[in-house]
Amino acid sequence: MAALAVLIFLGACGSLWLDAKDGGDAAFWWPNGLILSALLLNRRNKWPVIFGIGYVTNVLAHLYMHDTVFLSLTLTACDMLEVAIASYPFAHITRDAVRFSRPRELARLCLVGGILGPAISAVFAVAIFQMQSPAPRNFGLHWFFSNTLGTIIVTPIVLSLLDGEVAALFRRNRLLELTGLLVLLYLLPLAIFRYTHLPIFFTVFPPLLLLVVRLGMGGGVVGVCGIAAFCIMVVAKGGGAVVHGFELSWQKQVFLVQVLLASAVLCVALVAVVLNERRLLEQAARKSEQLYRLLAENSRDIIVLTDLEHRREYLSPAVQWMMGWDPKELLGGTYQKNIVHPDDIPAMTATLEALKAGEPSKTLSYRCRKKDGEYIWMEANISLYCDRITGEPIGYVNVVRNISERKAAEEKLQDAYLALEALASVDALTGTANRRQFDESLSQEWRRAARTGSPLSLLLLDVDHFKLYNDFYGHLQGDNCLRQIARVALDLIQRPGDLVGRFGGEEFAIILPETSCEAAVGLAERIRSLVAEQGVVHAGSQHGLVTVSIGCSTINPEPYTNQNLLIEAADQALYEAKRNGRNRVVNAVESSGQTLNAE
Fold first, then answer.
1. 182: burial class by Cβ within 10 Å (0-12, 13-18, 19+)?
2. In the predicted model, is pLDDT for residue 592 greater than 60?
3. Cβ(122)–Cβ(85) under 8 Å?
4. 227: nearest Cα among 272, 252, 199, 262
5. At what angle do helices 2-19 and 30-41 cross, to 10 degrees?
6. Choosing from 82, 105, 445, 506, which is the catalytic residue?
7. Residue 574: which of 595, 548, 536, 598 has the closest Cα?
């Protein structure tokens, strides 16, 4: 803090002394830049002390240079107001975060610290000066420019020198490069300001910018300091292009040198901003690339990039352990060539065309050939990827995983489902359709016959004296008997639409779509005969063998009628067959003596 007070006092005295020469054209105001630098280099809890030191030392400098007490106190207050305005945008930024090589911080310094703050303080300074005596000509304009130049020159330089940017140059293994660039830079101002009479000050900028490009903001600040040293030395001796080129007084030469330094600092800062932004973008791109490559190389899925013509541009290493292909072997090829199963190529083509037409992403299952020739099931999640600048699609991203195990499990599950469905519709004892399946099939065939106007026939079959058979031979033999009768019916019923079902107990029902009454009766008679020919002994039957009685009904269904009409007619015919001595076939028409029609 003591060193800060001494620097502020000396800077203020020097600026006030120059300000008193040649109408005040020579001076630029150092103290505000020094105070702002001190604020940015310290924590917020020290700011009140720094403001206090700045105010006291500025007042003392004004008094030392013979200003009145009123002007010393009030003009210093204007300077402190300017510093407060300039520091406000940085008040909530941590100390280590302030870098003028970043665009936001540089913009805040230039707009707030270099324009807004000096403009406001200039207005107050003119008003205060007018309260005591008429202000000097262009006093407000001179105040504004001198404070602007001081802030823009001093603050970035001090911050770089004291906050480690310059010191970092000497910790790198680039000392030889730094020395060579500085020698090149210093030879130019030496020649320009001492040995030439031509106003070619701009020639110092190319090596200065080269220094910034190679060494960053810190290198640029070192270069500006060297240029400033040469300028001050040459102007102090009264030589150089500034004198001979413009024939100016030494005070105006000092002012011109200050403008040159401010321009150099701004150029250094702007180039540093551009380079820093580029460096950050490169770091972000490099980090993203490393992250994506890490994910791609360690993913169990295959990641494929192709262009719009389906040529592969990238394959992740997973393709080698999953399919046996080296990624290089597949680069440049397309899915049509020996990779995708020929039967799945149309689906793949349709998927890619749908994506090109605007769909965001598609999932496709297909078979893919391994290097050994085996085909495995793969699932691909495919989407378009676009150019970041134009937004136009430039290719496809394909994330592929092996689903062979899942496909095998799905097939097993499907087989189990079909088996379960079959069990749910088949009578476990006889292998015929169960009652649920019979009801569904009869309803379906009834509706179809009503639409087409075709006849529908039904046979109801009952085992004669089956209870007595169970009593004589036991239930196991009874089960065998039912299975034999079911086998006779199943062997005889061959058409796809026909259905043999267990109607209940020892009764069976046979649905015969598009079958006339005569054909149904003929089929029933064949079943009755074949059962008798089995020769299964039945001591409880008057025939001595296992026989069946069959009721037959045929109806031409009408729309919106009930299929129970067909069942009731067949059941009535079956009752007549049993009543008339069993082991016979009775047609429902014969039993009722009339033609059946569903109305």
1. middle
2. no
3. no
4. 262
5. 160
6. 506
7. 548
Cβ neighbours for 507, distance < 8 A, ≥ 6 positions apart: 460, 461, 462, 463
Whole-structure pTM value:
0.48
Q: What does residue 100 show for φ and ψ, rounded to 5 degrees?
A: -80, 5
Bridge partners of residue 400, in order along the sequence: 302, 380
User: For the chain, how many residues are written?
Assistant: 599
Phi, psi angle pair for 363, to nearest 5°: -115, 135
How far apart are alpha carbons 158 and 30 in whole angstroms?
A: 11
Q: Residue 453: left if φ>0, alpha if ψ -120 to 50, beta else—which one?
A: left
Whole-Å CA distances, 429 to 426, 438, 476, 484, 577: 9, 16, 11, 11, 26
Report the CATH architecture of 300-408: 2-Layer Sandwich (3.30)
How far, in Å, are 21, 50, 244, 449 from residue 235 at the CA level? 15, 34, 11, 117
How many other CB atoms sit within 10 Å of the CB of residue 372?
Answer: 7
Backbone angles phi, psi at 136, to 5 degrees: -60, 160
Q: What is the 3-state secondary structure (H, E, C) of 440-504?
A: HHHHHHHHHHHHHCCCEEEEEEEECCHHHHHHHHCHHHHHHHHHHHHHHHHHHCCCCCCEEEEEE
What is the spatial distance between Cα 402 and Cα 376, in angstroms, rounded to a whole number?
7
Question: CA-CA distance, 394 to 311, in Å (whole number)?
Answer: 12
- Give me the percent of the chain exceeding a pLDDT of 70: 84
Tell whether the model's pLDDT for residue 595 goes beyond 60: no
**Is 518 among the residues known to form the active site?**
no
Give the dihedral of Cα atoms 56, 59, 61, 63; nearest 10 deg.
-130
Cβ atoms of residues 20 and 68 within 8 Å: no
The CATH topology of domain 426-592 is: Alpha-Beta Plaits (3.30.70)
Strand 456-463 versus strand 375-386 pairing type: unpaired
The two structure tokens encoding residue 69: 């007490």
List C-alpha distances in Å: 64 to 9, 56, 72, 530: 10, 12, 10, 139
Is residue 385 within 8 A of residue 375, CB to CB? The reply is no
Contact 146, 28 (CB under 8 A): yes
4: its two tokens: 């800060």
Dist. CA 466–CA 504, nearest whole Å: 13
List, for residues 38-48, the tens digit of each pLDDT value. 888 888 888 89
pLDDT of 250 > 70? The answer is no
66, exposed or middle or buried, with CB in 10 Å at 0-12, 13-18, 19+? exposed
Which pair of tokens denotes residue 157? Answer: 């330089």
